[in-house]
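Quick one - first record:
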Amino acid sequence: MSSRIASRCVAPVALLACLAATAADDPIFLRISRDEAERPVSLDTAIVSYAEPAAVSRRDARRMPVQVDLVAAVHLGSRDYYETLDRLFRDYDAVLYELVAPPKARVPKPGRKPAGAIGAAQQGMTRMLGLEFQLDSIDYTAPNFVHADLSPREFDAAMAKRGESWWGIFARLMAEAAARADGGAATDVPPMTWGDMFSMVFGADADRQVRLRRLMAEQFSDMDVLTAAFGGERGSTLITDRNTAALDVLRGRIAAGDGRIAIFYGAAHMDDFDRRLRDDFGLQPRDAAWLEAWDLRDPAPAAARR
């Protein structure tokens, strides 16, 4: 995936300055940053700001143009990444967030340990990668957080209307990945060496975590497979219908007078949001910043970590 945003702004340094300085005419929302030797440095997510033309603000008697920020998320990240997002979210009138749950569902406060088999799997994943889960780290109880997603009943109804199933969703994803492979689509994913596999099995925790993060980051950064499988004209419940629900909430917040709004959704949703903010709301991308979600640098030597 080519980088069409030139910013090298990385959390938590000078984020607001970055937002004011970086053009975003043709945004992407997830990337791997590399050093001069093409070694992976970090997996980054974007915050892209959209604003309405001044003429629209005047027509609708708004003192300032509406600003909507698409805040791309990865659901596993570093503690610094989520702490930075929490700080940034305080400055919005509303943060519209994704969660397939009943409208009045309570999201646990960050720091509480999840229970049950799913919770155990989450904890195992965080230890394996040296990361944290989004729901465990972001403060969804903040007063400006607004649920903007389907309920489980609405999600099931949308899937039924489209004739979708979980198996069908998986099959679409696999078919798109196979089609890209058969078509010779370029990939930046390097082949795994015996040394990589040895280090992931027998290496120290820090070495193993970084190598696993690099492997997963290369897969996550290729968003074209997801957007081709679940976006576009055909659409899907996973992206299209959930985005529609979020944008309905966005219309309500703008009508209520909110001027600065964040849409905090997974990175796979952002291409569809980008198109619909332009086409349906008349908003245009203005500037962008990058946040470092995963550290992919080689770990410090063991002696330096003592």
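second record:
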Amino acid sequence: MGSLQLRHVDAGSCNGCEIEIASVFGPVYDAERFGTRLVASPRHADGVLVTGPVTRNMAVPLKKTVEATPQPRVVIAVGDCAHDCGVFRGGYGVVGSVNDVVPVDVSIPGCPPHPTAIIEALRGITRR
């Protein structure tokens, strides 16, 4: 089993997914026991964990974060908003889904997704 270092980017979410991600890395679900952890710099990451629809203010920072992450990298869209803009679809400040801005490798559905769904997806990546 491998490890997975992730840089998290909130591209414009309501913070529901962030609460679940905090649970994933907290003491109850403890994703670090599977070799997955959050890092502060995209240059130290294996992938980018993205939440929310991409807003106008976050399109360029998201692209730059993904570009700064070394290849091979994985981009993970967490939640319905990251996948298809969810309830924010058509909003004046929304550019689109994560896949409209950067290529997505893994999408985790849910509004917000349950911590076990997030862990299952992350473990699937580390098994590759």
